[in-house]
C-alpha cells in the first residue's frame, strides 16, 4: 500500500511544483489539474471513494474550467512576452512563509503513523451512506446555509448576464 | 468600416473583437466567396463581403465573339439554371433585332425555364437546410428530384447543366413525344416530393427556432437595394417580371406569385416552396396545350448574323431574381457592349444589413437564404 | 393535436419511411454503381467533337475550310490544309487538333459546319494522365467512321445521311443534266452544219 | 471483478493468489478495451450506411461484402495520413489533447454492468463516478481548441466547453432521480432493482412517469455531451469548419473521432443501465446461459440507443448556441428538479394508482408550464398573399 501512496504523492507534488513554475499560463493550469487528480487518487487510496469522485467532479470538472476561462480574459497568456524574474525578492519571502508553516504543522504530520487513518477492515464499507446521513442529520444547518449562498450566487450571475444583454441590445 | 478594436462591452472587462474571414475556401459560402466578419464573442459586429475570385472577364470576352458565340458562355453565368440565362440573352437579342419567335418555341421556352426554376429552388432550400445543420438529408431529397430534371435537359439539349439550347428566334432541338412524356412524368411526381419535404422541414421546431425572426430584410431596404426575386418578394415587394413584362406567353397562363410580409430567413425559405408549387401549375398548363409547328424562326442566319445598330435591354424573371442583358450593337457581327445585370450580386449588397447583430451561425444561414451563385456574382 | 415536438417527430417519421422504403421500392434507391452498372446516355447527349469519314480514314468529309476554327468561341480548333508536293492545296486537313481541355462542348462547330463532317461524340471517358499533349486530340484520334456515328446517334445520323444522299443526287442530276446539255450541244452542231 | 476472482480462484486452484488477482484485474480491462473500440469501428460503418439509406443511397459497400471492412480501411488510411502540426501551435498541449479525450470515454465503461456480476469495478458510487469522469473530457476539448491557435478552433472550443458544462447539470440531476428511487449509487444494484416483474421488463424505470422524463433528459444530455446532432455545435461544419479538431490530421484526428463516439456510447450505456434495466431482459439471470442472454440484452439495448442517435442525426438540423444554452438552463434543469420532486411523491405515496396519478399530473403540469413560458420555437402563423 505504501508504494502506491509514494507514487501518487510524487505525482501530486510534481503537479503542484509545475503549476507554479511553468512559463505558459495554460500549462500551469494543466499542471494544476494533474495536482487535483493526484489528490482525488489519494482519496481513492484512503477508500473515501465518494470524496474522490466529488473531487474530480468539482475541481477538475468545474473549478479548472473556471480558471481556464479566467485565463482566456488575461492578456499575456503564453508568458513569452512579459518580463520574468523567478529569483526576485518575492521568492525569498515565499520561502520564509513556507518554512514557518512547516514548523507549525510538524506536530500534526509526524504525530501519528499512517496506519491510524486507514479503516480497520481491508474492505471498508463505502462512506457515501455515512456522509449522507451526517450531512442531513447533524450538519443540516450548514448545508442549508450553503444552499442559500449558492442560490444567491446563481441569481447574481443571472443579474449580471441580464445587464449585459440590456446593454448590447 | 472595420469596427474599432476595443469594444467596452462591460464597464470593467474590455474584450477584444475577433476578426475572422469566412471563405474563400469554406464549406458553406456557396462557392468562392469571402466574408470578413468582425465578431464580438459570437455576435457579428461588422461584415464585409469580398467577391471577385471567380471573375472570368465574360463581358469583355463577349465583345470579341459573334452574337451566337457568347450563348454557350451564358450557361456558365448562373450554372444552376442555364436555361433561363439563355432565355434572357435570346430575349435581349430578339428585342434588339426584332425577331419573332414561333408559338411552339415559346411554349418550349416556358417549359425549360420553369423546370430550371423547380430544380434551382429545390437545391436552394436543400443547401439552406444543409447550412442549418441537417446532415444532407433534405439536400439529397432535393437532388434526387433535380437529377430527373437534369436528365430531361440532357435528353433534350445534350448536356445536363451547360445546355446551350436557346437560339435567336427559337430553340435548337424540337421536343418529340418521348421527351414530352418524360416532362409530364417529372411534373406529375414533383408535388409528392414537395409534400414530403414540407412535412420533414417546414414545421420542424429546430428549423423554426433557427430561421424565424433571423436576418429580417425590411421592405424599404429591399426596394432601396434593388433586390429582386424571392428575396424581395419575401419582404413584401410585389414585383415579378413574368407579371410585369408579360414576356413569352406568360400573359396567357394563370399562376400566382407568393408574397411574404416579414422577410426573414423562414419567409425566404417558404416563398421558394410556394413558388415551386406555382411553377408546377404553369408547367401543367403548358404541357397540356403545346401546339405543333416550327421551333426556329426562319430568317435567322447562323453565320454572319448582324444586328442593326442600337442598344436594348432584355430581362427575365430568373429563379434568383431579375436577370437582364444590356446589349449595344453597331451593326457588326460582334456586340459593341455586352452587360449583364446579375441578381445574385445585387442581392448580396444587403447581406451586411441583415447580418449585423446576429450570431455567426445566423450569418451563414442568411447567406444561404439569399441563394447566390458565384458564377453570376463575379461574371 | 399539436404537441410541442410534433414537427420533430414527423421529420423522424419521414426519414424512417425513406430508410425502410429504400429496401423495398426500387425508385427510392437511385444510386447507380458506376463501373459495373452504367447510366444509358440519351441519344442527344454530347461530349467532345469527332470527325466523320465515309469509306476510309484518309478520306474524311472535312475539307479544311476552317469555318469551325473561326466560329469556335473558345478557339480550341487548329487546322492546317494538306498540300501535295507541288504546293497545290488538297481539299483535306493535314493537321486537325482539338484541345479538349479548352473545348467547352458547346456544339457550335457542328451547327456551322457546311459539310456535316464534325459531330459530337457521347463517350465521356476521356480522362488522361498527361495534361498537355495528352489532352490535345490529333487527327487520327478524331477520325471515326460513319458507321460509328450511326451507332451512337441513329436518328441524327440517318437524317444527315439522307441530306447528304439528296445533295449527292442533286449534284449528280445537275452534272448529268450539264453533261446531257454539253452532249446535246456537241451533237447538234454537226447536224446543224450538215443542213 | 470479485466474481471473476472467485471463478478464477476455484478453477485454477494451484495458481498463486497474487497471479489470480492480477488476472481478475486485467480480464475486464481487456474486455473493455476489446469490445467497445470494436463497437466504435462498427458504429462508424453502420452510421454511414444508415445515413445513406435515409438519403436514398447505399452506404459504403466497396470494401468487403457490404462494406464490412470499411472501418479497417478507414483505420489504415488514417494511420498512413501525414500528421500536420501547425507551426504556431502549442506543441505539448496539441499533442496531449487527443490522448486526454479518449480516457474519459473508456473510464465510464468501468461502471457499466454488462451481465449479472459482470461489471469491471463494482464501485459503490458507480453512477456518480460515470458522470464525474464525463466532465474530464471538457479539459481535453479546451486544450485542443486553445493549442491549435486557430480562431475557428478557439470558437469551437469555447462552445464545446460551455455546452458540455451546461448539459452536465441537468444530466446529473436526472441521474439523482434514479438514485433516489433505487436507493443506491452502485450501478449493479440499480440494475438488479429493475429486474423481476413481468418478463423482467415491467420494472424498468423507463416505465415510471418520472423515469420517462429522466430517460428523455438523459438522451438529450447524452446527445449534448458527445456533441452529436442536434447539438453538434462545437464542430459545426457550416460555421466553424471543424471546431476544435480543425488543426488535427492523421491518427490524432482518429483519436478525436474515437473519443467522441466512445463518449456518446458511454452516455448511451449509462442511459441503458439507469433507465432501460441494464442487462435485464426476458431470459436474463445468473449462471452461464442467463449471463449470455443478459449480455445479449445489454448490447441490443445499446445498439438501439446508438440507432436512435443515428436516426436523429439524419433528420434534425442543429440548434444555435444561445438556444442551446437557453434550452439547457430554462427547460431541462427545471424539468430535472421537478422530476426529483416527482420521485419523492412516488416514494412516499404507497398506494400505487394514487402515486401514478399524482406524479404524472405533477410532471404534465410542469411540462406545460415550461413549454408555455419559453415558447420560442412556435410556428408563427404566416399568411402569404398571391399577387
Beta-strand share of residues of chain B? 5-15%
Oligomer: heterotetramer
Q: Which structural category do the helix and sheet elements of chain A fall into?
A: mainly alpha
State the helical fraction of chain A. over 70%
For this structure, what is the CATH homologous superfamily of the largest domain in chain A? Answer: NADH-ubiquinone/plastoquinone oxidoreductase chain 6, subunit NuoJ
Write the layout of secondary structure elements.
The complex is a heterotetramer of chains A (169), B (379), C (195) and D (387).
Chain A: H1 2-21, H2 25-45, H3 49-73, H4 89-111, H5 128-136, H6 140-168
Helix pairs in contact in A: 1-2, 2-3
Chain B: E1 6-7, E2 15-16, E3 18-22, E4 34-40, E5 43-50, H1 58-62, H2 71-75, H3 82-97, H4 103-132, H5 137-157, E6 166-167, E7 170-171, H6 177-201, H7 205-211, H8 219-224, H9 230-234, H10 241-244, E8 258-259, H11 265-288, E9 310-318, E10 321-329, E11 337-341, H12 343-348, H13 351-355, H14 360-370, H15 374-378
Chain C: H1 6-24, E1 49-53, H2 67-71, E2 77-83, E3 89-99, H3 108-112, E4 118-120, E5 136-137, H4 139-142, E6 143-145, H5 146-152, H6 154-194
Parallel strand pairs in C: 1-6
Antiparallel strand pairs in C: 1-4, 2-3, 3-5
Helix pairs in contact in C: 5-6
Please tell me about this protein's structure.
The complex is a heterotetramer of chains A (169), B (379), C (195) and D (387). Chain A has helices spanning 2-21, 25-45, 49-73, 89-111, 128-136, 140-168. Chain A is built from 6 helices and no strands. The mean pLDDT of chain A is 80. Chain B has helices spanning 58-62, 71-75, 82-97, 103-132, 137-157, 177-201, 205-211, 219-224, 230-234, 241-244, 265-288, 343-348, 351-355, 360-370, 374-378; strands at 6-7, 15-16, 18-22, 34-40, 43-50, 166-167, 170-171, 258-259, 310-318, 321-329, 337-341. In chain B, a hairpin with a 2-residue loop joins strand 6 and strand 7. Chain B is globular, with a radius of gyration of 22 Å. The two termini of chain B are 26 Å apart. The mean pLDDT of chain B is 88. Chain C has helices spanning 6-24, 67-71, 108-112, 139-142, 146-152, 154-194; strands spanning 49-53, 77-83, 89-99, 118-120, 136-137, 143-145. In chain C, helix 5 crosses helix 6. The model of chain C has no long low-confidence stretch (mean pLDDT 85). At the A-B interface, helix 6 of A face loops of B. Strand 8 (258-259) of chain B pairs antiparallel with strand 1 (385-386) of chain D.
Amino acid at each position: 500500500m505504501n508504494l502506491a501512496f509514494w507514487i501518487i504523492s510524487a505525482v501530486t507534488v510534481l503537479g503542484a511544483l509545475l503549476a507554479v513554475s511553468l512559463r505558459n499560463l495554460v500549462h500551469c493550469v494543466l499542471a494544476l489539474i494533474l495536482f487535483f487528480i493526484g489528490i482525488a487518487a489519494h482519496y481513492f487510496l484512503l477508500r473515501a471513494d465518494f470524496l474522490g469522485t466529488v473531487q474530480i467532479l468539482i475541481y477538475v470538472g468545474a473549478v479548472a474550467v473556471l480558471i481556464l476561462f479566467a485565463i482566456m480574459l488575461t492578456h499575456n497568456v503564453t508568458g513569452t512576452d512579459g518580463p520574468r524574474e523567478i529569483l526576485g525578492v518575492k521568492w525569498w519571502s515565499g520561502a520564509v512563509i513556507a518554512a514557518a508553516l512547516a514548523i507549525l504543522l510538524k506536530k500534526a504530520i509526524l504525530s501519528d503513523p499512517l496506519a491510524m487513518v486507514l479503516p480497520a477492515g481491508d474492505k471498508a464499507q463505502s462512506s457515501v451512506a455515512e456522509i449522507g446521513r451526517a450531512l442531513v442529520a447533524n450538519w443540516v444547518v450548514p448545508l442549508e446555509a450553503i444552499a442559500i449562498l449558492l442560490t444567491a450566487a446563481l441569481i447574481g450571475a443571472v443579474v449580471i448576464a441580464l445587464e449585459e444583454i440590456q446593454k448590447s441590445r | 468600416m472595420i469596427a474599432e478594436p476595443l469594444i467596452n462591452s462591460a464597464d470593467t472587462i474590455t474584450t477584444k473583437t475577433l476578426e475572422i474571414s469566412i471563405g474563400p475556401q469554406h464549406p458553406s459560402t456557396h462557392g468562392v466567396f469571402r466574408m470578413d466578419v468582425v465578431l464580438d464573442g459570437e455576435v457579428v459586429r461588422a461584415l464585409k463581403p469580398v467577391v471577385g475570385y471567380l471573375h472570368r472577364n465574360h463581358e469583355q470576352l463577349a465583345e470579341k465573339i459573334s452574337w451566337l458565340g457568347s450563348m454557350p458562355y451564358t450557361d456558365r453565368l448562373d450554372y444552376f439554371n442555364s436555361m433561363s440565362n439563355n432565355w434572357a440573352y435570346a430575349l435581349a437579342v430578339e428585342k434588339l433585332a426584332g425577331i419573332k419567335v414561333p408559338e411552339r418555341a415559346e411554349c418550349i421556352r416556358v417549359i425549360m425555364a420553369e423546370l430550371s426554376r423547380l430544380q434551382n429552388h429545390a437545391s436552394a432550400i436543400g443547401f439552406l437546410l444543409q447550412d442549418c445543420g441537417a446532415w444532407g438529408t433534405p439536400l439529397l431529397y432535393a437532388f434526387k428530384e433535380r437529377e430527373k430534371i437534369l436528365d430531361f435537359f440532357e435528353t433534350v439539349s445534350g448536356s445536363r447543366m451547360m445546355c446551350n439550347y436557346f437560339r435567336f428566334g427559337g430553340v435548337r432541338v424540337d421536343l418529340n413525344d418521348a421527351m414530352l412524356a418524360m416532362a409530364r412524368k417529372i411534373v406529375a411526381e414533383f408535388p409528392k416530393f414537395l409534400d414530403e419535404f414540407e412535412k420533414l422541414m417546414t414545421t420542424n421546431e429546430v428549423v423554426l427556432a433557427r430561421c424565424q425572426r433571423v436576418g429580417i430584410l425590411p421592405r424599404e431596404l429591399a426596394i432601396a437595394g434593388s433586390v429582386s426575386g424571392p428575396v424581395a418578394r419575401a419582404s413584401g415587394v410585389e414585383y415579378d417580371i413574368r407579371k410585369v413584362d408579360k414576356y413569352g406567353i406568360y400573359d396567357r397562363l394563370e399562376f400566382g406569385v407568393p408574397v411574404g410580409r416579414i422577410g426573414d430567413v423562414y419567409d425566404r425559405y417558404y416563398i421558394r416552396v410556394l413558388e415551386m408549387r406555382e411553377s408546377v401549375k404553369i408547367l401543367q398548363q403548358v404541357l397540356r396545350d403545346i401546339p405543333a409547328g416550327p421551333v426556329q424562326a426562319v430568317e435567322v442566319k447562323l453565320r454572319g448574323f448582324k444586328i442593326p445598330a442600337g442598344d436594348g435591354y432584355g430581362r427575365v424573371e430568373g429563379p434568383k431574381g431579375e436577370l437582364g442583358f444590356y446589349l449595344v450593337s453597331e451593326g457588326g457581327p460582334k456586340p459593341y457592349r455586352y452587360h449583364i445585370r446579375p441578381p445574385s450580386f445585387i442581392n448580396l449588397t444587403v447581406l451586411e444589413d441583415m447580418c449585423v447583430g446576429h450570431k455567426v451561425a445566423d450569418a451563414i444561414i442568411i447567406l444561404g437564404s439569399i441563394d447566390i451563385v458565384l458564377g453570376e456574382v463575379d461574371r | 393535436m399539436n404537441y410541442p415536438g410534433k414537427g420533430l417527430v414527423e421529420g423522424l417519421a419521414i426519414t424512417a419511411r425513406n430508410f425502410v422504403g429504400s429496401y423495398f421500392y426500387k425508385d427510392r434507391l437511385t444510386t447507380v454503381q458506376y463501373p459495373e452498372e452504367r447510366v444509358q446516355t440519351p441519344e442527344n447527349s454530347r461530349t467532345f467533337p469527332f470527325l466523320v469519314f465515309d469509306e476510309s480514314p484518309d478520306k474524311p468529309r472535312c475539307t479544311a475550310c476552317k469555318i469551325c476554327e473561326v466560329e469556335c468561341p473558345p478557339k480550341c480548333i487548329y487546322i492546317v490544309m494538306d498540300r501535295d508536293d507541288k504546293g497545290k492545296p488538297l481539299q483535306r486537313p493535314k493537321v486537325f487538333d482539338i484541345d479538349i481541355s479548352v473545348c467547352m462542348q458547346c456544339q457550335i462547330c457542328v451547327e456551322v459546319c457546311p459539310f456535316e463532317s464534325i459531330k459530337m461524340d457521347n463517350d465521356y471517358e476521356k480522362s488522361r494522365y498527361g495534361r498537355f499533349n495528352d489532352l490535345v486530340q490529333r487527327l487520327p484520334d478524331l477520325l471515326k467512321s460513319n458507321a460509328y456515328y450511326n451507332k451512337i446517334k441513329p436518328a441524327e445520323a440517318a437524317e444527315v445521311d439522307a441530306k447528304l444522299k439528296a445533295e449527292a443526287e442533286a449534284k449528280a442530276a445537275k452534272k448529268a443534266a450539264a453533261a446531257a446539255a454539253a452532249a446535246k450541244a456537241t451533237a447538234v452542231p454537226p447536224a446543224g452544219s450538215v443542213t | 471483478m470479485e466474481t471473476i476472482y472467485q471463478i478464477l480462484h476455484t478453477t485454477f486452484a494451484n495458481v498463486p493468489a497474487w497471479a489470480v488477482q492480477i488476472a481478475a484485474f486485467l480480464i475486464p480491462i481487456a474486455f473493455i478495451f476489446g469490445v467497445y473500440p470494436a463497437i466504435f469501428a462498427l458504429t462508424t460503418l453502420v452510421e454511414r450506411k444508415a445515413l445513406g439509406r435515409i438519403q436514398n443511397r447505399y452506404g459504403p459497400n466497396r470494401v468487403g461484402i457490404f462494406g464490412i471492412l470499411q472501418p479497417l480501411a478507414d483505420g489504415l488510411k488514417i494511420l498512413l495520413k501525414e500528421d500536420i502540426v501547425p507551426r504556431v501551435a502549442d506543441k505539448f498541449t496539441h499533442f496531449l489533447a487527443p490522448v486526454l479525450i479518449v480516457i474519459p470515454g473508456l473510464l465510464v465503461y468501468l461502471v457499466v454492468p454488462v451481465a449479472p456480476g459482470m461489471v469491471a469495478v463494482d464501485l459503490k458510487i458507480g453512477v456518480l463516478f460515470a458522470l464525474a469522469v464525463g466532465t474530464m473530457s471538457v479539459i481535453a476539448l479546451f486544450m485542443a481548441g486553445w493549442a491549435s491557435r486557430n480562431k475557428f478552433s478557439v470558437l469551437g472550443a469555447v462552445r464545446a466547453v460551455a455546452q458540455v458544462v451546461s448539459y452536465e447539470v441537468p444530466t446529473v440531476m436526472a441521474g439523482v432521480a434514479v438514485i433516489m428511487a433505487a436507493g443506491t449509487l452502485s450501478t449493479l444494484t440499480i440494475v438488479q432493482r429493475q429486474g423481476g416483474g413481468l418478463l423482467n421488463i415491467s420494472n424498468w424505470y423507463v416505465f415510471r412517469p418520472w423515469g420517462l422524463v429522466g430517460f428523455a433528459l438523459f438522451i438529450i444530455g447524452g446527445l449534448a455531451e458527445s456533441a452529436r446532432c442536434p447539438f453538434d455545435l462545437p464542430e459545426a461544419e457550416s460555421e466553424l469548419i471543424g471546431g476544435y479538431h480543425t488543426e488535427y490530421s492523421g491518427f490524432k484526428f482518429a483519436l478525436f473521432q474515437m473519443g467522441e463516439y466512445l463518449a456518446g456510447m458511454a452516455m448511451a450505456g449509462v442511459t441503458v443501465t439507469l433507465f432501460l434495466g441494464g442487462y435485464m431482459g426476458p431470459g436474463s439471470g445468473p449462471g452461464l446461459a442467463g449471463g449470455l442472454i443478459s449480455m445479449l440484452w445489454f448490447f441490443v439495448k445499446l445498439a438501439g440507443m446508438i440507432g436512435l442517435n443515428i436516426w436523429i442525426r439524419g433528420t434534425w438540423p442543429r440548434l444555435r448556441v444561445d438556444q442551446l444554452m437557453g434550452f439547457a438552463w430554462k427547460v431541462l434543469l427545471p424539468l430535472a428538479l421537478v422530476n426529483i420532486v416527482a420521485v419523492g411523491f412516488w416514494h412516499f405515496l404507497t398506494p400505487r394508482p394514487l402515486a401514478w396519478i399524482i406524479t404524472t399530473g405533477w410532471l404534465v403540469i410542469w411540462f406545460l408550464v415550461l413549454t408555455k413560458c419559453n415558447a420560442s420555437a412556435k410556428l408563427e402563423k404566416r399568411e402569404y398573399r398571391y399577387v
